[in-house]
Amino acid sequence: MILAIAFVLLSIIIAFLMIPKLKKQQETKTVVVFSILLLIGTALNIGIALKINIPSPLDVITFILTPIKEYIVSFTK
Amino acid sequence: MEKEMISSRQFTIITILYSIGTAILIIPASITNMAKQDAWIAAGIGVILSLLIVKLLLTLAKQTPTLTFVEANKQILGRFFGTITTICFLITTILSTGELLYFIGIFMQTEVMPETPTMAFALLFSIIIMYAAYLGIETFARSAEILFPLFFLIFIFFVICIAPQITFDNIQPMLEATKASMLYSITRFLSIFSFPLVVLLMLYPITVNVQHSVQKGFYMGTIIGGIVLTTMVTLCILVLGPDNTAARTFPSYALAQRISIGNFLQRIEVIMAFMWLTTLYIRTFMYFYVSVVGLAQILNIKDHRPIILPMGLMILGLSQIVHPNIIHFNNYNNEIWPILSFIVMILLPVLLLIVAAIRKPKSQKEEEV
Predict the structure, then answer these.
(1) What is the model's pLDDT at position B23?
(2) Which pTM was predicted?
(3) Which keywords, in A-to-Z order, does the entry hold (chain A) (predicted)?
(4) Which residue of chain A is at minimal alpha-carbon distance from B311?
(5) What is the number of structural domains in chain B?
(6) Are A27 and B301 in contact (CB under 8 A)?
(7) Rounded mean pLDDT of chain B?
(8) Which CATH number does the domain housing residue B238 bear?
(9) Residue B368 lies in a domain
(10) Which residue in chain B is spatially nearest to A72 when comparing CA positions?
């Protein structure tokens, strides 16, 4: 719980440090990308801090590539 | 943003340390698992085959001398398909960064500090990586230059210290491995050692100032890295024996634990761990830098520095979820990663070369008209 709050505070600090600076330089696109990435990162870290069971993104890749793997394995046997 | 330049010597050093990377820790186990005592032959063949991959990458780099790999994708395949392939490439690099951070955490936790959570190591390491990415590639190249002599000094010291324990019975009988197991071993070796070299194409054509000597440096770097790895695999088999090597997660660390000279100079494995931390740092940085710069280039952002912090937070989170346990890690690295890296890091450059060869005559005709 404390870790989750720490992550929220950290991301708020990062946002407050960076976004006004970027707005001054008039880089709207960077601000949008920055905010999206920060949101994903913070959400992920809060999930980890609260010990929510997040499935590994590699499982998706494993699921896609398993047929190819099985084909190659059957080929060599 | 001013253009950053590195020298060809710095590029060679980055190639050496990058190709050694994680391989130095996990390759002995993963290839000895299949080829048993002939794993060193597989490693040797793997190094020779890697030179072909370097040749492929250099040919691709010649096609687009003013672009990075991500920009070359867009240029050659067009806006739509180029974006799709780039996204696949970037997903691979981002996930690999997370994996490497996980790897650092699990290595430190299992071998050095068993009661510290892996998050702590991942956090500290990601801060270094983010800082290095913020300072840029020039500073990073200089830091690699400083770390390189230290790395080799420790490596030579390591080889000399472990040499008295070699028993040649371990490597016999030779040439017993079946063709299939040999093939698997070579594929695993290549997938960790030389397929990811394509990441260096983000540096090679545009940020290196002397073009000609760099090509030689690329070959040299791969060969030296390969020699280091083959030495490591051979030593693991000679000292620990093939079964013992295959059973361990970090065989080269176990190798360092065996060092004992006159019952006096022993338990120096943490000093040896400097080697692994150096190469892991170089490899993690390269993946992270390429993900950040690639993302900035694909979204047409001028400066990549602002997105370093959120990306760092993201890979820190990723490092905690990519592998729930070490078995998942082993399965993924031995079975899925070779296929994934072959598709993204070998087939993609080949595709780019073919498309470039088809499109080039057309564009020349257009110019003539």
Answers:
(1) 87
(2) 0.93
(3) Membrane, Transmembrane, Transmembrane helix
(4) A37
(5) 1
(6) yes
(7) 88
(8) 1.20.1740.10
(9) no
(10) B339
